[in-house]
What we know:
The protein is built from 7 helices and 17 strands. By secondary structure, the protein is α+β, with helices and mostly antiparallel strands. Strand 1 (7-10) and strand 2 (16-23) form a beta hairpin. It is elongated. The two termini are 26 Å apart.
Amino acid sequence: xxxxxxxxxxxxxxxxxxxxxxxxxxxxxxxxxxxxxxxxxxxxxxxxxxxxxxxxxxxxxxxxxxxxxxxxxxxxxxxxxxxxxxxxxxxxxxxxxxxxxxxxxxxxxxxxxxxxxxxxxxxxxxxxxxxxxxxxxxxxxxxxxxxxxxxxxxxxxxxxxxxxxxxxxxxxxxxxxxxxxxxxxxxxxxxxxxxxxxxxxxxxxxxxxxxxxxxxxxxxxxxxxxxxxxxxxxxxxxxxxxxxxxxxxxxxxxxxxxxxxxxxxxxxxxxxxxxxxxxxxxxxxxxxxxxxxxxxxxxxxxxxxxxxxxxxxxxxxxxxxxxxxxxxxxxxxxxxxxxxxxxxxxxxxxxxxxx
Length: 355
């Protein structure tokens, strides 16, 4: 349902504008165009579109979808209920927990002026009860805490450019466990993390990785925990451990199987890829055909947890893109989505991950 202030495009005519009045009885909305005239239009013949940058003419990108955007699914009262309803998919390598803090530059080409995002990535078969803290004036306060399900990631915080110095000294606490099944006891993480603020402004700090389509600065919390433990061991303890080790029968460790990731499915929603001809079709009918293909695809892969699907919708006027985001935020709230790889698709594609 449209609201006053929404930016809209007309489905069956060229143009659009901002909704200024709504006549619910007549199902009419009054749209103010670029010239300041109010145009009465049936609500069903309008579609909301994202705001567009006045300088680049590109839709303004929202932050990654995360549990902040779907709080009704992740409140304290129903997180247990959600875990019961969603089958937890375990990987063969996931009992060897890998946990990262991931930092992204919102504009990788403007590191001196951009803001950042921080995510917690759980590459394991364990639930993580986490608490990320920030230290200031010898005191701590919690930036974000909660429960992160296996093999998922969650947005922790937006970081303004002027706030990067506050992230020089952070502390993270994590308890890993499984629900309703046996598991090997995992050591709690109680870790101080020091990040040099200058790293946020160096391009080589953000690299390609196996988890995201965007360059990221990754901090492996498991490896960092082990390094800090080793740093606290005295020289005598190290020598004694080496001597003791030499007296034991050495067993060759089997290498972990390399993680395999599901292939990304690409769905081209351009109408000429779906239909041989569009003769006689209105813009509304064309949009309906494209959205039907979108729904059919998500229905086909709904049981493939972790499956990534790239919907190629093109840049255009942003009508199809806006409708896809609307469906993801209402009908498919549990799914994670973000802009697909900019290098490969430009601003013309959205990636959805089945959860």
